[in-house]
Amino acid sequence: MTNEELSARLKAFALMLKYGHDLFGAGDFMDAAALAVNNSRQLLNFRTATLLELAGGKACVIAQYGLAEANPHSQLAVRQCRFAESLQLADEPQTVTRENGLPDELAEHDAVYCCVKLRPPANLEETDFTFIWLLEYEKSVPPYVPNTVKLLAASVSEALYYQRLCKSRFRRIKRHVKKRWIWGVVLAALAGAMFVRVPENVTAEFTLKAPEITSAYAWFDGLIAKCLVQDGETVKRGDVVAEYDTEQLAYRLSGAWSALREVEAELALEQQNAFTDETRLGQVRLLEARRDTAKVAVEEAQWYLEHSEIAAPAEGIVALADDRAELLAGKAVRTGDKLFEIFGGNGMVAEIPVDEREASVLSQHFRVTLFLHTAPETAIPAEILEISHYPELTEQKTYCYKVRVKLQNAPAGLRYGMRGVARLSGGRVPIGYRLFKSSVLYFRGM
């Protein structure tokens, strides 16, 4: 053996060692497979090469020479897979030509294949897959290739099986442990967040009202003749706001007076006759009873006339039930019908209905801040006046506690009836309590 041959063999052996070292240091299995196919050309001088994985009788292309990523659906890959599935490989490299079984579609352009089975390392447990390395040459396989590929296959096999099994398994375990740690940290953070105390806030709509509201009702059944005050006007206590139609009342009083005078005349006559005839005393007593009844009718008619004028019960702003004086005039009313209200007092108050499901904020010291729909950017502080002792059924068919508050530093231009959103801020409670409470109320309402 000459020095040149020895130098060439040593160089080739060094390349094999570096080649195997690079495969072991690859980032993952697919990178190692690509390196095994592409970096070996310097030693084996093939025309093209393909690495396949055979499992359960089915072959799949893993890496192809000259491609950064294999294309298992290409025509060449499909043909090579069918060819690999039909091979009966021994441990030694096998040369396949058109004469000894290479399919015609792969034997084009004088192609000859060197097929190598990459055996798993001896200390590795039995696997359910096998790597097959197909090397394509033109016309014939060089004489040095079988021995060289046999030596190279040992290093390639160990690296590929290591990347495929051991390193992948270690990475899966590491990834699993890492995920468990991450989930543990997340769950611990969530559990800790449940104990973070935040202010208990409740929002509800409110309506601006007068501090004192006095209502006026119909005294008796009848027809309202006219309304003397328009909605929104200011009146004083005792001012007449509306009047009944008194014509029928006057007729009733006139008839009662006539009946009373008639009974009194008959009674006077019978009393004179009773002085001479004692049998008339019974008739006198009957007429006296009729006289008393007639007096009651007169007094009743007088009461109706005296109450035909409906006066303002307090000083303030009139709010008609029908909104307009023209609608109240000529209206037939029944006893107890609300005719109007008087808004009195200084300042304004807000009435806040708090749903009983959110009423826990009322059990402790809380603050109220108002935000009008017309000026949502302005916060209006409020002073709590009273809280109802029991919930009331509202128009929305919910039971609510009524909270009355007085506006402090109210802006100018407020009008009765304005609406907005009230925020009731109570003490600090854990987030877990809020979430648990909301969940229970939600599922209970389903």
Automatic annotation (TrEMBL):
Location of this chain's protein in the cell: Cell envelope
Q: Which GO terms describe its cellular component?
A: cell envelope
Lineage top rank: taxon: Bacteria
Q: Which UniProt keywords are listed?
A: Coiled coil, Membrane, Transmembrane, Transmembrane helix
The transmembrane residues are 181-198
Record keyword Membrane present? yes
Write the protein's name.
HlyD family efflux transporter periplasmic adaptor subunit
